[in-house]
Amino acid sequence: MGQKANPIGNRLGIIRGWDSNWYGSKKDYASKLIEDHKIRTYLSARINKGGIAKIVIERTLGKLIVTIHTSKPGIIIGKGGNEVDRIKEELKKLTGKDDVQINILEIRRPELDATIVGDTIARQIENRINFKRATKMAIASTLRMGAEGIKVKLSGRLGGAEIARSEEFKQGRTPLHTFRMDIDYANVFAQTVYGKIGIKVWICKGEVLGKRELNPNFVGGKNDMSDRRERSGSDERRGGDRRDDRRGGGRGERRN
Predict the structure, then answer these.
(1) 110-228 has which fold?
(2) How many CB atoms lie within 10 A of CB 45?
(3) Distance between CA atoms of 20 and 205, rounded to whole angstroms?
(4) pLDDT digits 0-9 by tens, 218-252
C-alpha cells in the first residue's frame, strides 16, 4: 500500500495541512479547483528559476491570497518589488479578481525540501551532467542538513540509452507506512534532448511527536528540525563516549 499512496496525501490532516484553503459550494467548487491549477501552472512556468517549493492558495470573500514558498526570494521580488507587482497584475488578469495578495516565504534549508532537491537534479541532468553524480551529490547535501533518510528514483532514457529503465538511490530510512514520520515527496521532470526523465524524491525529516500546526504556511515550531538536531546531538555524544572507550580512553592518555 505504501508504494501506491502519495506520501503527502496519506498524511493530510495528521501531520500535514492542505495547500489550498477555501470553502466551495457544489456550484463553484470545480471552477475554483481549475483556477487553483491554472495559478500553480502559470507561476511555475513564469518563475522558472525561482526555486519554488510550493504554492499555497487561500480564499476569503472576494480576496485571493497566494503564498509562494521559495529558496530564492530575491528573484521573485525583483528590484524594488517590481517583479512582484507585475506578477500580481498578471494574476488579476488570469483570475479576473481585483483583490489579489502575494506573500513570499523564504525556505531556510532548501536541501530538506523534496521539490527543490528534485528540481536541482533535473536542472543538472538537463545540463548534461551524469545522473548518478547529480543524484549522489543531492543525497549527500540532504543528509548533511540533518535528514534521517532520502530515496531518489529516476526513470526514462537515463544517460541517453536506447531502452528506458529505472534506477533507485537511497540512504538512511524512509518508512512510508508510519504516519508520524514527516516524509516530503515530489515528482519532477527533466526535459532532455533524448526525452523526458522522471525524478521522484522522498525525504524523511524524522518523527513528529505531539500535535502539529497544520497550516501549510507555518514555518518552524516545536516539532521542527531543531528538536531533531538536539536529539541527534545527544546520540552523537553517547556514541562519542563509546568510541573513546573503544580506543582505550579519550582523556589525553598517551599510549606507548
Answers:
(1) Ribosomal protein S3 C-terminal domain (3.30.1140)
(2) 8
(3) 23
(4) 665 434 444 444 444 444 444 444 444 434 444 44
Q: What would the grid cell of residue 190 be?
A: 527533466
- Look at the block and give the residue holding cell 531518489: 152
Q: Where are the beta strands (DSSP E) in the chain?
A: 20-21, 52-60, 63-70, 99-106, 149-156, 165-172, 181-192, 195-207
Query: Which residue type, as a one-letter code, is found at position 163?
Result: I
Residue ranges matching CATH 3.30.1140.32 in the chain: 110-228
Please tell me whether residue 125 adopts helix, strand or coil conformation: helix
Beta strand pairing status for 52-60 and 63-70?
Answer: antiparallel
Q: What is the pTM of this model?
A: 0.80
7-106 belongs to CATH 3.40.1480.10: no
Q: Which residue has the cell 573503544?
A: 246
- How remote is the C-alpha of 27 from its chain's centroid? 33
Mean of per-residue pLDDT scores for the chain: 84
Q: Greatest CA separation found in the chain?
A: 84
Q: How far apart are CA 244 and CA 131, in angstroms?
A: 40
Residue tagged 502559470 (cell numbers): 42
Residue among 144, 209, 211, 198 at smallest CA distance from 171: 144
Residue 249 grid coordinates: 580512553
pLDDT digits (tens, 9 = 90+) for 171-208: 999 998 899 999 999 999 999 999 999 999 999 999 98
Q: What are phi and psi of 101, to 5 degrees?
A: -120, 135
Query: Strand 165-172 relative to strand 149-156: parallel, antiparallel, unpaired?
Result: antiparallel
